[in-house]
Design brief:
11 helices
């Protein structure tokens, strides 16, 4: 019962944009109930509040308790990405994808790390998969268009811009402006 009240209170503060207070409440929750999902939630708040060491500790604890918790894997991937450890991040994202084939955020995260490593073809494949799983998410289109531009595939850029124009016209205009198309 105590945990439920703390979760409601943490949700309330999160909605108010008080991430630090919500994170502190999640730390109290995991002290009482260190379930893998709660550890992952608390780790996410640590990550969002720029406490990377705390986030890593909590994600590792979640994975120790449940190595098949894909949420902890993709969150660890984003943590490693933020630490600029892109090869390590790719491994965590890949594990999340193996565990949950439709985890669009893991495909997207892995694509961003592939881009950082200049593995453009791998990034393109992951961005395309992200678009299949999340067809109205403009971020994958944006990064895919920029990647095509780096590879001088301007026809592909224009096709993507026309697709994006249907649901995010401001992103389409931004891409045209940024890429001089």
């Amino acid at each position: 019962m105590f945990t439920i009240h703390l979760r409601l209170l943490a949700d309330f503060f999160e909605v108010l944009g008080k991430s630090e207070i919500a994170g502190n409440l999640w730390m109290k929750i995991v002290a009482k109930d260190p379930s893998p999902l709660y550890l992952t939630a608390a780790g996410t708040f640590c990550f969002n509040n720029n406490n990377l060491e705390g986030a890593e500790r909590l994600f590792k604890a979640a994975l120790t308790n449940d190595p098949k918790l894909y949420q902890a894997h993709f969150n660890m991937g984003f943590l490693k990405q933020k630490m600029l450890l892109h090869s390590c991040a790719i491994d965590y994202f890949s594990t999340a994808i193996t565990l949950q084939k439709k985890c669009d955020v893991a495909f997207f995260g892995r694509a961003i790390s592939h881009l950082a490593n200049q593995s453009y073809n791998r990034a393109i494949a992951d961005l395309k998969k992200t678009i299949i799983l999340q067809p109205y998410g403009p971020h994958a289109y944006y990064h895919l268009c920029h990647t095509y531009s780096k590879l001088k595939k301007f026809k592909e850029c224009l096709v993507l811009i026309n697709q994006v124009k249907g649901f995010e016209p401001q992103i389409a205009h931004q891409l045209k402006r940024e890429l001089n198309l």
